[in-house]
Amino acid sequence: MTDTFIIGDTEIKRGERKRISLDVAKLYDFTNMNIPIEVIRGKKDGPILFVSGGIHGDEINGVEIVRQLLSKKALKTLKGTLIAVPIVNVFGFNTKSRYLPDRRDLNRCFPGSENGSLAAQLAHTFMTEIIQKCTHGIDLHCAAIDRINLPQIRACLDDPQIEQMAEAFRVPVVMHSELRDGSLRAAAKDLGIPTLLFEGGESLRFNGKVIKSGVQGVLSVMREIGMLNPLKNKPADKEIFVARSSHWIRAPHSGILSVKKKIGQRVRKGHVLGIISDPFGVERYEITARRTGIIIGAATLPLLNRGDAAFHVATFEDASTVEEHVDIFEEEMDGNNTGRFLN
Ligand SMILES: [Zn+2]
């Protein structure tokens, strides 16, 4: 690490902690749009980690994960640099929307360009001011509107450094996922920066268990890569379960959904996941599982048209063991597992 570390016009010296408003654009009323950033630089050298939330403006669990992370006393002994960015898509955050005012999805616009669309400009600023200066990254997401996701890590596990970080995050379910063009993860990978994506909960809602698992996961990765001291009582290794494939089960008929299975639960081929019926509850259509697996995502809006995605099922070698570990994990997050991450 060099002695000078600069973001925007602000220099952060060793041992300093600073808040920065990074200029990204002007609105049409000439108001400045800024990304709020906090940089904590340890006295000793170490990795440079970005933790970002709100790439999709309505995914606010990540914003809360970053806020809670910043309040942790453990950061006093930090080695290296933590760049905490609670809200990347400040435009979408203010309009409670996933997108930018130009209707683009920021996570399809990386690495961006200086003279491109508004989304491309924001991506470019974030890349050049933050990502390019980092050695590691964690990007926080939740399900798109009207859906909920089980806390999970999505990562390209072919890279041993990423695999090590994914294991260290200590959530039971890890999805091996290829990189999508234009995503932050793909752009970071091109720069050789190992990056995890944490996914959990729903848009425009706080979910206590998801937030806790996110905060603990980030701290655990920071310990693993040498930014924080190991815990005095080193926790036992957590088993993680890697899904190599997943599929959406869609509504076979339009109607109103009654849910029979929740996220985190194991399903077997032929199991009824939900029942779709007419407004009188008379004409009924079953939604059934195609394969054995774990429900990792589901619709929360029970009004479905034929073909709408209803349940996201990931397949594992041994789904019953995964279900047990998800139950234990949920209990650890708040002392009960009755909510299935729904509260
Ligand atoms: Zn997202």
Q: Could you tell me the CATH topology label of the largest domain.
A: Aminopeptidase
Distance separating the two termini: 42 Å
Question: Strand-residue fraction?
Answer: 25-35%
What compounds are bound to the protein? zinc ion
Count of the domains: 2
> What is the element string, with H for helices and E for strands?
EEEEEHEHHEEHEHEHEEEEEEEEEH
- Secondary-structure class: alpha+beta
CATH architectural grouping of the largest domain: 3-Layer(aba) Sandwich
* Assigned CATH class of the largest domain: Alpha Beta
Number of helices: 7
Share of helical residues? 10-25%
CATH superfamily of the largest domain: Zn peptidases
User: Which sheet architecture does the biggest sheet show?
Assistant: 13 strands, mixed
- Over all CA atoms, what is the radius of gyration? 21 Å
Q: Care to count the β-strands?
A: 19
Mean pLDDT across all amino acids: 94
Shape: globular
Q: What do these coordinates show?
A:
The protein is α+β, with helices and mostly antiparallel strands and 343 residues long. The chain has two domains: 6-224, Aminopeptidase, CATH 3.40.630; 245-334, RNA polymerase II/Efflux pump adaptor protein, barrel-sandwich hybrid domain (OB fold (Dihydrolipoamide Acetyltransferase, E2P), Beta Barrel), CATH 2.40.50.100. The chain is 22% helix and 32% strand. The protein contains seven helices and 19 strands. The chain has helices at 61-70, 90-94, 118-129, 160-168, 184-190, 208-224, 319-334, and strands at residues 6-7, 10-11, 17-26, 32-41, 44-52, 79-85, 136-141, 147-155, 173-176, 195-201, 241-243, 245-250, 255-259, 266-267, 272-277, 284-288, 293-299, 303-304, 309-315. Strands 3, 4, 5, 6, 7, 8, 9, 10, 11, 12, 14, 17 and 19 form a 13-stranded mixed sheet that branches. The chain has a four-stranded antiparallel sheet with strand order 16-15-13-18, with no helix packed on it. α1 (61-70) crosses α6 and α4 packs across α6. It is globular. The mean pLDDT is 94. Zinc ion (ZN) binds next to loops.
